[in-house]
Write a structure and sequence with these properties.
Elements (H helix, E strand, L loop, with lengths): L1 E2 L7 H12 L4 E4 L1 H8 L8 E3 L3 H10 L3 E6 L4 E6 L2 E7 L1 E3 L11 E3 L3 H6 L9 E3 L3 E3 L4 H7 L1 E2 L5 H7 L2 H13 L2 E2 L1 H10 L8 H12 L5 H8 L8 H13 L7 H9 L5 H14 L20 H11 L4 H13 L7 H11 L1 H15 L4 H23 L13 H5 L7 H16 L6 H12 L5
Parallel strand pairs: 3-6, 11-12
Antiparallel strand pairs: 1-10, 2-3, 2-9, 4-5, 5-6, 7-8, 9-10
Helix pairs in contact: 6-8, 7-9, 7-10, 13-15, 14-15, 15-17, 17-18
Family: Belongs to the tRNA nucleotidyltransferase/poly(A) polymerase family.
GO molecular function, one term: tRNA binding
Keywords: Magnesium, Metal-binding, Nucleotide-binding, Nucleotidyltransferase, RNA-binding, Transferase, tRNA processing
Length: 454
């Protein structure tokens, strides 16, 4: 089925399509770029599908002076570089059997665009377009866009059995686009959810990240409802299970969690810190907590549990460290400037700002009276924080007016004791900012060296 619709393609994409057509090959933009163009979203990538076979693509574009890279030649994909910009061109194909629930064991090239589109995951991704033919939409993808539906191409169970990651992608598209997963497709996900275990945790993590950074975080709960979350993030699934059973509307409710996450900046570490804190705050008791293979054992400390979750999902160390800091300190009471400086010493400025943002978001979900009182506290914390920063008050060892070498000159041997002295001086200065003068601190060291009180 073709439809009259106009998609403005970049000049380089038009050039690629034109080169293929002039050599008697069909060529279309396909997939996400077509979907996003219809939705008025600027595509991130422009994928091209063609009746030309890989060797023909290479020969043709090499003759045009372009660089070609056989990035996925086995599956018919060639990367063509035009003016330093790469574009993927893939031959129409029919996929063979998916033996590992992820990749076809073989592919067969075809001259039929319909056959190629038939193998794709969802109707909204199974459309093709060029300026000559217009929109090619055999599976009513544009209608499903109008209805805001995520629907599998063909028989849902077969489509999802082929590639288990497609189940998570359905939820990701739903989260990013605000679409609903069509009933039969959703039922197929529930039936096949255990197959997600066959997907690498790295691929799961990337899809989960996109859901977590979306505007439609109810999909976190839908992942649980469709049985996917249980297989890679059992700790959160367990919380949702108990929240659902109890009909809880407190801070342990999944509704509260979703509202809180959506009120926070779209920054991965912040949102993960809230998830971790939600799990840690949830009142587990051993009688009704089922510890599964992909869950922490709750006899470990909260920090260990958080670390285990993030390491299991193979986040990088920098992300793990930031999440652990934000999770650990988001419930700490910030009573005065001294408390602010002590937290700053551990977290740093950017993490402290993030902690205040999380606190503010939590306050705004409270009752009106509590909001008023809580926001007064937030204003105070922000004012005191900015005063500390603007007046260059000391809150780390490197801000002290004395350095390790100054203490060594007093006759203290280099070693662990130097660090102890500096930490003691920092504690004094945090309480009394005015004593952060070199001569005063040197005097403090001299006074107490003999007694080893410092």
């Amino acid at each position: 089925m073709t439809r009259n619709i106009n998609i403005k393609m970049p000049d380089k994409v038009k050039k690629i399509v034109g080169i293929l057509y002039r050599s008697n090959h069909e060529a279309f933009i396909v997939g996400g770029c077509v979907r996003d163009s219809i939705l008025g979203i600027k595509p991130k990538d422009w994928d091209i599908t063609t009746s030309a076979e890989p060797e023909e693509i290479i020969e043709l574009f090499n003759s045009e002076g372009c660089t070609t890279v056989p990035t996925g030649i086995k599956h018919g994909t060639i990367t063509v570089v035009i003016e330093k910009e790469p574009f993927e061109i893939t031959t129409y194909r029919i996929d063979g059997e998916y033996k590992d629930s992820r990749h076809p064991s073989e592919v067969k090239f075809t001259k039929s665009l319909e056959e190629d589109l038939k193998r794709r995951d969802y109707t909204i991704n199974a459309m093709a377009y060029n300026d000559k033919v217009g929109l090619v939409d055999y599976f009513n993808g544009q209608e499903d866009i109008d209805k805001k539906l995520i629907r599998a191409v063909g028989e849902p169970k077969k489509r999802l059995e082929e590639d288990a990651l497609r189940m998570l992608r359905a939820h990701r598209f739903s989260a990013q686009l605000g679409f609903k997963i069509e009933k039969e497709t959703s039922e197929a996900i529930k039936a096949l959810s255990v197959n997600i275990r066959q997907v690498s945790i790295e691929r799961i993590r990337e899809e989960f990240n996109k859901i977590l950074l979306s505007n439609n975080l109810v999909q976190l709960f839908q992942l649980y409802e469709n049985g996917l979350l249980q297989h890679f993030f059992g700790e959160l699934a367990n919380c949702f299970e108990r929240s659902k059973k109890k009909g809880d509307i407190s801070i342990y409710s999944h509704v509260y969690l979703i509202e809180l996450l959506q009120s926070i900046e779209k920054e991965l570490s912040l949102r993960w810190a809230i998830l971790i804190n939600y799990i840690n705050e949830f009142s587990y008791n051993l009688e009704d907590t089922l510890v599964k293979p992909n869950q922490c054992k709750y006899s470990t400390t909260s920090q260990d549990c958080a670390s285990n979750i993030l390491k299991r999902m193979k986040y990088d160390n920098k992300t793990i460290e930031r999440v652990l800091v934000l999770a650990k300190y988001q419930e700490v009471i910030i009573s005065d400037k001294v408390a602010i400086k002590r937290i700053l010493n551990t977290t740093g400025i950017e993490n402290f700002k993030a902690l205040v943002e999380i606190k503010e978001a939590k306050i705004k979900l409270q009752s009106e009276n509590d909001i008023n009182e809580g926001m007064k506290e937030i204003v105070r914390i922000k004012e005191e924080f900015y005063e500390i920063i603007s007046s260059n008050q000391c809150f780390t060892i490197k801000d002290l007016a004395v350095k390790g070498e100054d203490i060594i000159k007093l006759g203290v041997k280099p070693g662990k004791f130097i660090g102890e002295i500096l930490n003691t001086l920092l504690d004094m200065v945090i309480n009394e900012p005015e004593i952060n003068e070199k001569h005063i601190l040197i005097g403090k060291v001299k006074e107490q060296m003999d007694t080893r009180e410092i």
